[in-house]
Amino acid sequence: MQVQAQRSVRLLCALHLLTLFTTIILKLSLVLQVYKPTAVAYYVSYDSKVEYLYWIDSEHSIMRVRRDLTGRETLVTNLIQARDLVIDPIAG
């Protein structure tokens, strides 16, 4: 019985993460449509500590916006060659 309860909890956590990730991706597409209709997000990362969504766009910039779509900022421009975007959960 305990094993089944643990599996249920894991499944609920996985579904919650999937829902959160889907919501974040949908919000990112809204941000791109509003601010840069021709831009494409290549790498996406989310910092749950401060609730910021980060991405690298097709114009070689690192951008961020709050989860509620406010506070959009360009952090870095003119990247040469980005391969990924990772947020350090400890340092932020």
Strand-residue fraction? 15-25%
- The oligomeric state of the chains shown is single chain
The helix fraction, in percent, is 25-40%
Strands of the largest sheet, in order across it? 1-2-3-4
Shape: elongated
DSSP, total strands: 4
Low-confidence stretches: none
SSE order: HEEEE
Number of individual domains: 1
Distance between the termini: 39 Å
Biggest β-sheet strands, sense, barrel: 4 strands, antiparallel
Number of helices: 1
What is the residue-mean pLDDT, rounded to a whole number?
76
- How much is the radius of gyration in Å? 16 Å
Structural class: alpha+beta
3D structure, described in words:
- This protein is an alpha+beta fold and 92 residues long.
- It has one domain.
- Helix content is 37%, strand content 24%.
- It is built from one helix and four strands; from the N terminus they run H-E-E-E-E.
- A four-stranded antiparallel β-sheet has the order 1-2-3-4, covered by helices on one side.
- Strand 2 and strand 3 form a beta hairpin.
- The radius of gyration is 16 Å and the shape is elongated.
